Amino acid sequence: MYAIIKTGGKQYRVAPDDTIEVERLPGKAGDSVELTDVLMLAGDGGIEVGTPLVEGASVSAELVAQTRGDKIIIFKKRRRKHYRRRQGHRQDLTLLKVTAINAAGKKAAKKPAAKAEKAEAADKPAETGGAEA
User: Fold this and answer.
1) Residues 6 or more apart whose Cβ sits within 8 Å of residue 86
2) Is the pTM above the cut of 0.85?
3) 133 falls within a domain
4) Among candidates 22, 35, 23, which has minimal Cα distance to 61?
5) Does any domain span residue 76?
6) How many distinct structural domains can be found in the chain?
7) Of 64, 3, 69, which is closest to residue 36 (Cα–Cα)?
């Protein structure tokens, strides 16, 4: 089983026991994190794609460490104009170990119930509304 999740403006494909680096999340090493932005689930039962998210689904992960990425050099230059600028950047990252994928709730099961409620609501006002008054 695997899932596609969204965190920090990026999408990741995760499976149980995977280790991923994501943008900085609050917490300390050893904390558990619940990622609720699940875009897709795939497993033995088939594939379930969210619109845009899969309702009730989440991914549990353990925060392993807070780290920083490699240094990136930003260098700007305009030739023949005596203009040079050099800047460095290191992104703050969080190392996560995926512990479980929770696939609670099926969106397809909720749609017929919503249609049945709308049909009942449409029938009730017609029965009690104008005939008695």
Assistant:
1) 73, 74, 75
2) no
3) no
4) 35
5) yes
6) 1
7) 3
CB 50 within 8 A of CB 39: yes
Backbone angles phi, psi at 26, to 5 degrees: -70, 145
pLDDT digits (tens, 9 = 90+) for 53-101: 999 999 999 999 999 999 999 999 999 999 999 999 999 999 999 999 9
Cα separation of 87 and 72, whole Å?
A: 8
Asked if the bond preceding 52 is cis, omega within 30° of 0, the reply is yes
HEC sequence for the chain: CEEEEEECCEEEEECCCCEEEEECCCCCCCCEEEECCEEEEEECCEEEECCCCCCCEEEEEEEEEEEECCCEEEEEEECCCCEEEEEEECCEEEEEEEEEEEECCCHHHHHHHHHHHHHHHHHHHHHHCCCCC
Tokens at residue 36, please?
């609720």
User: Which domain covers residue 104, as residue numbers?
Assistant: 2-127
Residue 132 lies in a domain: no
- Cα three-residue angle 56-104-28, rounded to 5 degrees: 70
